[in-house]
From TrEMBL, chain A:
Residues 987-1044 form the Trafficking protein particle complex subunit 11 C-terminal domain. One of its GO terms (biological process) is vesicle-mediated transport. Keywords: ER-Golgi transport, Golgi apparatus, Transport. Residues 152-422 form the Trafficking protein particle complex subunit domain. This is Trafficking protein particle complex subunit 11. It comes from Nelumbo nucifera. Involved in endoplasmic reticulum to Golgi apparatus trafficking at a very early stage.
From TrEMBL, chain B:
Keywords: Endoplasmic reticulum, ER-Golgi transport, Golgi apparatus, Transport. One of its GO terms (cellular component) is TRAPP complex. InterPro entries: Longin-like_dom_sf, Sedlin, TRAPPC, TRAPPC2L. This is Trafficking protein particle complex subunit. GO terms for biological process: endoplasmic reticulum to Golgi vesicle-mediated transport. It comes from Nelumbo nucifera (Sacred lotus).
Amino acid sequence: MTFPATPRSGFRAVVRGRNIKLTVVVVQSFDKDEVSEDRMIALRKRAEIDSKYLLTFVQKSSSDLKHSLNRLGSIVAELANTYYRDEGRRVKTCIEKKSFSSVDLNIRYCFKVAVYAEFRRDWGEALRFYEDAYRALREIIGTSTRLPAIQRLVEIKSVAEQLHFKASTILLHGGKIIEAIAWFRQHHAAYKKLIGAPEVIFLHWEWMSRQFLVFAELLETSSAVIPSNTSLPLVTKDNKPLTESEFNPAYYYQLAAHYLREKKCCLELALSASEAVAEIESSADSVIPSVYVGQFARLLEQGDALVMQNLTDAEYVLYALAEGKRFQDSFEIIALLKKSFESYSNLKAQRMASYCSCQMAREYFSVGKFDNAKELFDGVASLYRKEGWTTLLWDVLGYLRECSKRLGSVKDFIEYSLEMAALPISSGDEVQSPIHKGEYGPAGCASLPQRERIYSEVFGIMKGESGLTSNEGNVTLNVTPERPIRLEIDLVSPLRVAFLASVAFHDQVAKPGASIFFTLSLISQLPQPVEIDQLEVKFNQSECNFTIASAQKAPISATSIGKTGARVVTAPVLTVVTNKWLRLTYDVTSELSGKLECKSVIARLGPLFTICCQAESPASMNDLPLWKFEDHVETFPTRDPALAFSGQKFIQVDEPDPQVDLVLGASGPALVGERFMLPVTIVSKGHEIHSGELKINLVDARRGAALGSPREMEPISTDSLHVELLGVSRPDGDDEPQTGQDNIWKIQHSFGLLSVPFVNLGGSWSCKLEIKWHRPKPVMLYVSLGYLPTSNGSTIQKVHAHKSLQIEGKTAIMIGHRFMLPFRRNPLLLSKIKVAPNSNQSTTLALNETSILIVSAKNCTEVPLRLVSMSIEMDENDIGKSCTVRQRDESQKDHALLVPGEEFRKVFSVIPKIHSPNLAMGTVCFTWKRDSGLDKQSDSNITEAGIITRHKLPDVNVEMAPLVVSLECPPHTILGIPFTCYVKIQNQTEFLQEVKYLIADSQSFLLSGSHNDMVSVLPKSEHILGYKLVPLASGSQQLPRITVTAVRYSAELSLPQATSTVFVFPSEPHFKMGNLKEKVTEIVTTGA
Amino acid sequence: MIVCIAVVGHQSFTEADDALKLHHIVHCSLDVIDERVNNPKKTGSTLNETYLGLLYPTENYKVYGYLTNTKVKFILVTTHLDVRDADVRNFFRRFHSAYVDAVSNPFHVPGKKITSQTFAERVSTIVKSFGLSSAV
């Protein structure tokens, strides 16, 4: 440890007098070398310092070091704070007592106080004193005589700039954006008019520009935001409204650029005024900024020492000019504008941005960067074009015209010139007033004479009469035969105002080979009449193209027409007068069917210049974008006003009428399932048929009927399986496509395409379409024949004949079925008891019992049908296992005829063999065919096979019957002769069944046996009740009704009334019985 | 002095002075109008207010705007730097009624430039009286 040197008394005196504070820092390397308390006190006393200002500084660890540094920092800050406060207070009293010799000193004092306050972060006071200084400075303008006049003003402005900068910074950092803007406004207003001496005006503008630039940068970098809670219009303290743009740095950048531009102009003026250029160069050599703000001095060498010598105003002016020359203001201006442009673009203030970009382009133009200028001007021009600001557009186009001239682009030059010449400007003074001097671009003020001048200039060039030498002399614009000019004017081109072609066909459709009339109309807004040498009209069918030559200029254009060999017509006059339609009506002939469209109209003006205008339909023509606001006479492009609203530049040329008959022979509705034959016959009536093609289309009539032409029809996808085109049979019976190369043979579900062989004049050809319906559905059949009427050449288009027919598809056979109980036998089915009678349940059959199934088929059509067979098909894997289905009778002979509405029935017996809740019963297959009469039966082998209509039988519920009651009694008996009748109660279960029975008395019979009783039937056995009956009446008699009740199931069983009848003969009948044996044929299933 | 008064319709416009600079000013002021109309909340102007107030100050001019119910914009450019809001309001009201009369002319085609001589005279009267009223 080392001790600080003992302060000498002299040093102490110096310290005391100057209000200097001491801080003693004891630097320790390690924590533990503690300095003893006594030594510290001694040290403090010797140095005469407060204990606060003695601190130990520990270097050992980083945390200690940080701590020590913080302490040292705070102590020094506190001391500095005190010092500046005291100093400030001292200077302040000077100001308050006004104890200063000059105002200049006052400003200086104020500045000092403010800076001290700033050191202490007392922003309020700093601001107050900056403002005081600024105000004091304002007062000495015009009164101070300290320096020569020019330099004095420069100095004042420099100081003002400093003070303003300080004040603005403090305001903006304090978030007082409104105050800052108000302050800036006032600053701007105060100094705006202080232009100064005329030879150095540029210094003033430069200064102004800098004020804006600095404020813009401050605003941009400051964190202050526009107060959102207060609503606009915001007002400053003195109640002047603020606008949104003043919160935007772009506004200030833009104005900075504006003033800098002003500076540039004035500087150029000043430089051109001062002749002594050499003098300027030399005089600036030794001048440097002085140590004082805003002062300049000449540095002179006197021996070894350097001496500052004050300048005279004349010297200073020369110096300022020399300095000004060194800077390239244009690039500075462009940079400022670019900032402004970007900011406005971000704010989507498109017009402001384009104004900036326009200014930028003008600056580029002034420094000779025509490429950059042209690019920017083009962007601006498109906005003005879109929004229709003619005056602004004129100015920009003037620049663009000049740019393309300088760049040597003849085509651009002509385009811009034509656009300018056609702008809607009809008034305006030709001479520009001196006030606006410099404001207008190279095109000058917009006026009609200017338009005319531009027009004649550009037409001079276009006709090759005169070249145009640009002012710079290095570029010459002229049109040479090697580089002819061709302008394209489309629907969005700005040159539509200069030249617009409209084409209207008089009709909408035309016959091939007939004359088609149309009106070609041309209009121009150019200020003088345009003479056209010839017009070429181009169509999409190039054979129709033709040329209109002007009668006056015919000899000139003859050479060029000779080459093409196209049609040439002559028009008496081809001059387009301003805003007056030139209407020309001509006719063309088209041999091709389809669309004939006028594509373009090419106007030839002189040998080297053509304008190609895209043809427009009057019906869909847009107004001329700029002229539509003008109050000028508007006429129709065609003589017929109706055509002006509806005229189109295209026409539909029909195809020639077919001279062929296409016959679809329909024979009533089609039946579902059959292969419906539909003959198609083609009869030639006036055309031979070459390379014929037959297209067939099937479309759902309900949905697709609206579709017009079969060519455009989409194949039906979802319904395609309901109705299907199976094939086409040719008259020679050859279904397969022939191997000929041209033959097409394509059949799909709903679409067919086949080629038709050559048919002679008067000849015919036919084929049959085979269509199958899978569902009943009406269908539209479209058949179209396309052919060539002559065999030669492919240029001639096909002729088409169309035919359509709606065909109904109907269901032929309705199949129904019914189950019946076996004869005089009633099994007890438990599921029938349990379920409510009217519930919708599948049929229940008893296991191993014979049930009866009756299948009926009804002819629903209007034609007689012939039955081929009826059978029941089981599923493959169920055959013979689950149940047996037998055909009961064979009395029906095959090939029975069913007249319309007749029903055919067939009886089957069913014995279920499997206990199952849903047993598949199989499908009824009904095979039938149309009855085409006996003699025609062998007509076609297709119909011979018959059509199978299927009907799926519903699944049945099969269950075991615990009890079966059956009645055995003879079918007939004789009056008075007793007969025996047995009621068998069969117990099929493993349990003892108690059965009650009850027999009701009947008047027709005398009855013996127990009326009512209860019996027990043993498991798997049978109980027989026998009754002896004597019939008392003859005829069909109802047997006494027997009701059996199974106690276990509390279910009642009785035989159906219909089956329990017996026929009673009055006496013994005498029959002649033959040897008829009842045959039972098993037809369907015979086990696997 | 009022140097320019412009009527900007949906696309067209007419005006009193032809100086290019004023065209630029009027054109740029449309951006401010757009912003005011699109962000009424931010600018705090009430919906039914047709007078838009000071649009923006340029170096030498002040630009005021007015928007009719049919979205026709009136833009006033003046060299007066101290203008009372009430005067401008009053001016616009009188100008609006002159405009309404002019476009109500059966021979005027909506959307075209107004070419009426009477309208021009009336506008110049209003413009002249503007200076006077503010002087009082």
